Amino acid sequence: MKKGFIFDLDGVITDTAKYHYVAWKELADSIGISIDLQFNEQLKGISRMDSLDRILERGEKADSYTQAEKEALATKKNTNYVELLADLTPSDLLPGVQEFLEEAKRREIPCVIASASKNAPFILKKLGVADDFAHIVDPATLKKGKPDPEIFVKAAEAISISPADAVGFEDAQAGVDGIKAAGMYAVGVVVDEPLHGADIEVKKLTDLDIDVLLAQ
Ligand code: BG6
Ligand code: MG
After folding, report:
1. Which numbered atom of ligand 1 lies nearest the CA of 45?
2. DSSP strand E in 11-110: where?
3. What is the pLDDT of residues 130-173, one digit of tens each?
4. How far is the CA of 137 from the centre of ligand 1 (A)?
5. Does residue 192 carry a pLDDT above 80?
6. What's the gap in Å between 199 CA and the centre of ligand 1?
7. What is the mean pLDDT of residues 50-67?
8. Strand, helix or coil at 170?
9. Percentage of the chain surpassing pLDDT 90?
10. Average model confidence (pLDDT) for the chain?
11. Has residue 85 got a pLDDT over 80?
């Protein structure tokens, strides 16, 4: 029987992945780099600074900015992103999320957030589900980002369970890779692009039977 659920945030709990893309695209355009939705797939699950580095590499501008300038660019993107989140409400929870969290609570199965986003506490509050999570892993404490398993291992530790007793939910390939490397059961939440290596793929959490999941 599984004993805990470990959730990614962007693209799993709510569709903020589209706002990340809009904000990165504006930033990239402003420095003469073109990005598209396909390229954006490799930014999913990746930290803010690592995302910026990948964009600069794509535009062959990796060495064009000092660290301070890069930090200013990342801050500019984040300011724009946070503005796009202004109207986020509980109605922006992805289908089935609210019901899933309620079912987990009824069964006393703790839920944890394992997201690379430093905006996670703010977003969960706006969505009205902050109290549904026993813990949010602080990405600032990580040595390595996804696909390293560290964030998922820390999430399991926070609720005192072994990774093998946890189910992880991810929409990003880097995230699925991290969940599997941690030794967890992986639910891949698929939008357009397929995810490799997930134990089960669903389009929405409504497609899942919580009791079947717990029995994995
Ligand atoms: C991840 C997103 O959840 O968080 C990435 O998939 C994002 O796209 C990363 O870059 C960091 O988010 P933030 O909110 O700290 O810039
Ligand atoms: Mg995600």
Report:
1. 6
2. none
3. 999 999 999 999 999 999 999 999 999 999 999 999 999 999 99
4. 13
5. no
6. 24
7. 97
8. strand
9. 97
10. 97
11. yes
Mean pLDDT for the stretch of residues 53-82:
98
Domain boundaries, the chain: 4-14+89-214, 17-87
- Residue 193's pLDDT is 79
Q: Which residues contact 116 (CB under 8 A, 6 or more apart)?
A: 45, 46, 47, 48, 139, 145, 146, 151
CATH for 17-87 (1.10.150.240, 3.40.50.720, 3.90.1010.10, 3.40.50.300): 1.10.150.240
Question: Residue 205, exposed/middle/buried by CB under 10 A (0-12, 13-18, 19+)?
Answer: buried
159-162 long-range Cβ contacts below 8 angstroms, 24+ apart? 159/3, 159/4, 159/110, 159/112, 159/134, 159/135, 161/3, 161/4
Task: Answer yes or no: is the C-beta of 137 below 6 A from any ligand 1 atom.
Answer: no
Q: What is the CATH number of domain 4-14+89-214?
A: 3.40.50.1000
